[in-house]
């Protein structure tokens, strides 16, 4: 019977292709728009590192040297505080980082042109902490030295891709040896640097050991704040300059508690020594808590999603009205089938099979439209580039949504048709 | 085969109450060919719709092939329609996009037969009405008479207990009408029970029993006497019909 119902569905599509195309397109439009918006919301609200997000903690401290701190606690740290965390040696991994940028070139290249790259000055624990995916080589060891890890995109642009381990690149006049090449790496949101509206930026192009970056005066491309005047990045080691972010990976709650105590004791010690006058507030936020705290999801995106949902509702009503007219014109066949022995349940099943097939067609069209909407969004709003992603979860959700809304659209006309008396349908 | 006792059917609008059938009683025996006549609006179609389980009734009792249909649900009624009744409509009621084969196949689909069994039954039914060679034609490629023969084949394919024909020759010219009637008589001679609504006095006379409905009741006025099995109008008793 199921095969027969499928055959009848396709027969019906063949009989009135324009009407069914219109129904499918109407639903696809609503599904496409909602899916595109859901894709944005999903990317913004997803857990970027789900297998360990509850074990990674962002460190905020309250060690501003006077009584007028910007924030309590402050999410950027001074070199002194960050270095203390790095040397704690009581957690699984520690990452101290700051964002930078510069121009690099392949030292072997005969071309003098350089390419602009986004640089991350990072302590060596960064790679294990973030589970950075290596295609070739490995992370650099230690926080000094002229060794770098290069991202996939930069590797292709500078070296033409492939295994570039051992190659040398030049950055700001200094030469660095590539010790690791990353695979394409997507972190949405970019949890390790979600501040300063950078939560949806791409992962970095080049990773430079933290101390080397400071020695080489790689500029700070993020928020910095200080109470002392300073000329070069290397000055920051001994001055009250706040610009570093720190993350730790703990193995369990006990370790987190011990680390918290360690920070509190350290802050208290600083306070006792007159380094800062503030309350002891050291905050450890896990990845999701940190992203929630930063409120990275633009509320406009939620508003758009709501509007898209309402639009889909309108589409469902329109499709339902079209299908009602189709059912009306099919009353005779409906009556005939009932007269020769089809039960209401038979015809309801037939209608549901037809609406499921229509749902699949609408889903495919809707996902294509969603992809088009996202591409269009990126054209007009390039900042959405890293957000406009239809991942498999959204694909599955949209597919189910399409089947459900198509069945909803069909249901009213099916129920209404089934309420007619057979003799009335045959007249 | 078919037994109706004091069946009433009332159509009610806001202001008007119409008795389409009033205390209607009728027994039809296995193998009878009954013609139902009467003026327009007399209740013939209502009778046929109730007999065919297409419409409900308000009062009375109805047994079809020994099954009391009172209280049956939609599934049970559909099954009865499918297994025990074959419909032949005035306007053939074929699906224009389906081939003759697929049209005849329709009731069999709801019976759960295997494809082999369906094919055999369809071929047999089409053979019986002389259209086996046209199985792959569309209805539009056939004459009106041939289309009605397809409708008869569709009604026969499920081997029903009773055939209900609603003016089966109403849309046909006399030659085609004669061909269709010949088939119906042939089926009756082979044992089929047939109830046929008709306006044609000749057709009414040609069957072995006829009844007339006027104002929702069986009337013994102006009943056409059968040509072969003579029965007077007065002898056509509602509950104890004699042929």
Account of the 3D structure:
The complex is a heterodimer of chains A (427) and B (243). With 427 residues, chain A is an alpha+beta fold. Helix content of chain A is 49%, strand content 16%. Chain A folds into two domains: 2-47 and 298-425, no CATH class; 62-281, no CATH class. Chain A is built from 13 helices and twelve strands. In chain A, strands 3-4-9-6-8-7 form a six-stranded mixed barrel. In chain A, strand 7 (168-171) and strand 8 (174-182) form a beta hairpin. The model of chain B is unreliable at 228-243 (pLDDT under 50). The chains are: A alpha+beta (427), B alpha/beta (243). Chain A binds chain B through residues 1, 4, 11, 14-15, 332-333, 336-346, 421-423, 426, and chain B through 45, 49, 52, 54-55, 74-75, 77-79, 81-83, 87, 89, 93, 95, 97-98, 106-107, 109-112, 154, 158.
List the helices and strands and how they pair.
The complex is a heterodimer of chains A (427) and B (243).
Chain A: H1 2-15, H2 17-45, E1 56-60, E2 77-78, H3 79-86, E3 93-106, E4 115-122, H4 125-130, E5 134-137, E6 147-150, H5 152-159, E7 168-171, E8 174-182, E9 206-209, H6 210-215, E10 225-226, E11 241-249, H7 253-272, E12 283-286, H8 287-294, H9 299-329, H10 331-339, H11 344-380, H12 392-419, H13 422-426
Parallel strand pairs in A: 4-9, 6-8
Antiparallel strand pairs in A: 1-11, 1-12, 2-11, 3-4, 3-7, 3-11, 5-8, 6-9, 7-8, 10-11
Helix pairs in contact in A: 1-2, 1-11, 2-9, 2-11, 2-12, 9-12, 11-12
Chain B: E1 2-12, E2 17-28, E3 33-37, H1 44-51, E4 59-64, E5 67-68, H2 74-84, E6 85-88, H3 100-109, H4 115-128, H5 144-157, E7 162-166, H6 174-189, E8 193-197, H7 201-206, E9 209-214, E10 217-219
Parallel strand pairs in B: 3-8, 3-9, 6-7, 7-8
Antiparallel strand pairs in B: 1-2, 1-4, 4-5, 9-10
Helix pairs in contact in B: 3-4, 3-5, 4-5, 5-6
């Amino acid at each position: 019977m199921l095969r027969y119902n499928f055959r009848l569905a396709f027969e019906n599509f063949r009989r009135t292709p324009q009407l069914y195309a219109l129904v499918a397109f109407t639903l696809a439009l609503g599904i496409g728009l909602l899916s595109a918006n859901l894709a944005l919301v999903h990317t913004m609200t997803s857990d970027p590192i789900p297998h360990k997000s509850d074990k990674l903690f962002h460190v905020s401290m309250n060690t501003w040297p006077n009584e007028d701190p910007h924030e309590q606690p402050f999410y950027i740290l001074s070199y002194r505080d960050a270095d203390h965390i790095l040397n704690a040696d009581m957690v699984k991994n520690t990452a101290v980082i700051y964002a930078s940028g510069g121009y690099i070139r392949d030292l072997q290249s005969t071309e003098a042109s350089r390419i602009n790259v986004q640089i991350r000055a990072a302590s060596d624990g960064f790679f294990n902490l973030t589970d950075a995916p290596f295609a070739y080589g490995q992370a650099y060891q230690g926080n000094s030295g002229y060794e770098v890890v290069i991202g996939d995109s930069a590797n292709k642009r500078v070296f033409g891709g492939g295994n570039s381990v051992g190659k040398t690149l030049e950055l700001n006049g200094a030469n660095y040896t590539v010790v690791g090449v990353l695979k394409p790496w997507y972190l949405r949101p970019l949890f390790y640097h979600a501040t300063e509206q950078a939560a949806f930026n791409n992962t970095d192009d080049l990773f430079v050991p933290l101390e080397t970056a400071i020695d080489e005066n790689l500029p700070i491309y993020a928020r910095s704040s200080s109470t002392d005047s300073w000329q070069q990045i290397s000055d920051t080691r001994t001055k009250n300059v706040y610009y570093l972010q720190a993350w730790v990976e703990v193995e369990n709650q006990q370790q987190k508690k011990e680390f918290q105590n360690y920070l509190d004791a350290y802050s208290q010690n600083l306070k006792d020594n007159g380094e800062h006058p503030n309350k002891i507030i050291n905050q450890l936020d896990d990845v999701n808590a940190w992203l929630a705290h930063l409120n990275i999801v633009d509320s406009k995106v939620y508003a758009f999603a709501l509007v898209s949902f309402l639009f889909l509702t309108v589409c469902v009503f329109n499709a339902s009205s079209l299908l009602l007219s189709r059912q009306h014109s099919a009353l005779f066949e409906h009556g005939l089938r009932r007269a020769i022995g089809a039960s209401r349940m038979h015809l309801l099943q037939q209608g549901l099979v037809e609406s499921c097939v229509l749902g699949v067609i609408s889903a495919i069209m809707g996902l294509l439209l969603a992809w088009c909407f996202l591409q269009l969004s990126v054209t007009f709003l390039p900042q959405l580039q890293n957000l406009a992603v239809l991942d498999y979860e959204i694909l599955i959700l949209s597919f189910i949504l399409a089947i459900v809304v198509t069945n909803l659209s069909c249901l009213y006309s099916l129920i209404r048709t089934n309420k007619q008396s057979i003799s009335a349908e045959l007249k | 085969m078919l037994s109706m006792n004091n069946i009433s059917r009332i159509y009610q609008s806001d202001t008007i109450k119409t008795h389409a059938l009033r205390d209607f009683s009728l027994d039809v025996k296995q193998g009878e060919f009954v013609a139902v006549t009467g003026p327009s609006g007399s209740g013939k179609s209502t009778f046929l719709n109730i007999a065919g389980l297409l419409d409900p009734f308000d009062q009375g009792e109805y047994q079809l092939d020994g099954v009391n249909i009172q209280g049956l649900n939609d599934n049970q009624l559909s099954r009865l329609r499918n297994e025990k009744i074959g419909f032949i409509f005035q306007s053939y009621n074929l699906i224009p996009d389906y081939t003759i084969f697929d049209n005849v196949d329709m009731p069999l689909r709801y019976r759960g037969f295997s494809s082999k069994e369906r094919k055999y039954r369809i071929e047999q039914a089409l053979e019986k009405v002389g259209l086996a060679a046209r199985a792959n034609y569309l209805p539009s490629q056939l004459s009106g008479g041939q289309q009605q023969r397809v409708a008869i084949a569709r009604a026969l394919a499920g081997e029903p207990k009773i055939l209900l024909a609603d003016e089966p020759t109403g849309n046909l010219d006399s030659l085609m009408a004669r061909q269709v009637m010949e088939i119906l008589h042939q089926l009756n001679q082979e044992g089929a029970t047939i109830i046929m609504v008709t306006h044609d006095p000749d057709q009414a006379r040609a069957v072995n029993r006829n009844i007339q409905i006027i104002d929702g009741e069986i009337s013994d006025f102006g009943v056409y006497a059968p040509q072969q099995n003579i029965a007077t109008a007065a002898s056509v008793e509602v509950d104890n019909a004699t042929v």
